[in-house]
Structures are given as C-alpha cells and as structure tokens.
# Entry
Amino acid sequence: MKIITDFNDYHSKTPLALSLGMFDGVHLGHLSIINTLNEIAKNEDLESAILSFWPHPRKFLNPDDDVKMLNTLEEKLELLERSGIQNIFLKTFDEEFRNLTGIEFCEQVLVDKLNVKHIIIGHDHTFGKNKSGNFELLKSLSSELDFKVNQLEAVQQNDLNISSTKIRIALAEGRIKDANEMLGYNYPLTGKVIHGKKLGRTIGYPTANIDVPVNKLLPKSGAYIVEVWIDKTFYKGMLSIGTNPTVDNENQTLHTEVYILDFDQDIYDKEITVKFRDYLHDEIEFEGLEKLIEKLDLDKRLTEEFQF
# Structure
C-alpha cells in the first residue's frame, strides 16, 4: 500500500478507482465501499485508492475543537492496508482545499492531479465548498470529465445503517458489543503504560495506567472486560475508565487503567493494546474499600468466565 501525503509526489500513470471520505473506524460500511473499489479496479485495469484527510478538517476550521476519532492514524492505516487498498492519499486540509467548489475539486484534484477514472461514493457523502459536491454532481460531470461513478447504499445491521456516528453513540452509551458488530472488529486502544498513584496494588488489584492518545475516542466511563495484548501475547483484563472516586475522591482527572489477570511483570513505558469486549458496569463510588474489593472480585470472576 502506497501512502501519498503530497499530490506533487504522485507520479503513477495508472488511472485510479477512488473513493473519498474520513473513513473513521474503517467499519463494515467502509469495507463494503473498499471491496467494491478493489473489485472495480481489478476488472477495469485500474489501481484502487482512497482520498482522506488527517487531521480531521474540523481541526482546521476550529483549532479549539477537541475532535476525538475512532481510530488513531496508525490504526486507520493498518486497517486500510489490511483491506487490500493500493493507494492512500492522506491530505492535510487547508485554505486552498476549503475554497474548492465541488466542480473545481472534480476537475483540479480528481481528474487533473489523480487521473481518476471510476469514483465510488457513499450514500450520503458530500464534498467541496458548502458541500456543493455530491453524487448528482459527479453524475452530471462524468461524461465531460471521462470517469464513471457509482453510489453505494448504506450497509445495514439490525435494520440500522452502519455509520461512524452510530458507532460513536454506541461507545458513549457503553454498548460495546453493538459498536464491535458495526466495526467488524473489537474496539482497540493502544498506549504506553505510565506511572500512576499505585493505589490498586494496596488492595490486591494492581493496574497498568494507559496514556491515551490525545485524539482517541474513549467509551463511556465505567468498567469493561477487555483483551490485553503485550508483545503479541494475549491476557484477560478488567479495564476502568473514570476518576477512581472511592480511593481518590479529590482528584477528578480521568484515568484509564487495566488490571491484567494472571500477570506480574514490570511493563512501565511499554506500549500495550486493549480491545474492548463487554461492559461490566458504571463507575461506582463505594462506601469503603471492602465494598470496592467485593465488586472487583465479582468483576474478576465475570472476566474469567467470559468467552473471549
């Protein structure tokens, strides 16, 4: 897979079958587009390509916007590579791009710069200044600019269209299984293990504090059953997102920490990955440590019994 961050560095003469969008999550709906794209590219002697943006255009339009993404850039690129796509154009959104109308985008970018011969567009995708570009515009320009265009219907699950927005809502509500079903994989979080207050070890549940990437969307605060991956080895884990109100009720900083079952190694400064599998319960402030430990014991038993 080729990753192109500057159109001026792109010199391939092979025409493209291309789709455009953020592809945040690279979920089952996105994979439907990509599979069609790869098939068309193969049948029409083209190369498959995606034009996306990083960071999110909202960051350019409003630098104070704390945009949280389903994927880090590394996760997104790994998922796209796994999908079989041949080219990724990763554009930084800027003033020039912002002011391109839908027609100018088609003429100057898709045709003149990228030599696109077949465009696949999602059912509700828009592009260009004031969202002036859409399927109807592409269809009207296709003969003049010598490209084909297809619009794909939304992929449905349980009679609902799959979308990045619906996945975000599911995560915000703690509906991990629903989110994972729409994604087609278990929602991941990768970060370095950092030093915390080491309060967990005083009650028999030492945890690894994860330094969460700044742009990564966290699910709802609470307790979760997770897979833990350390150096490609799998462990069962219980993860907590919250402020630890029972043992640290003065500090309102959000922590993400994982208790790893049957594990006793020093992993400070090591990068680990957790994958969310199920929601246990909301964050709870207990009357004392005894009640907290009772709940942790129950969570541990449920984690041990979970069918990973």
About this structure: The mean pLDDT is 91.
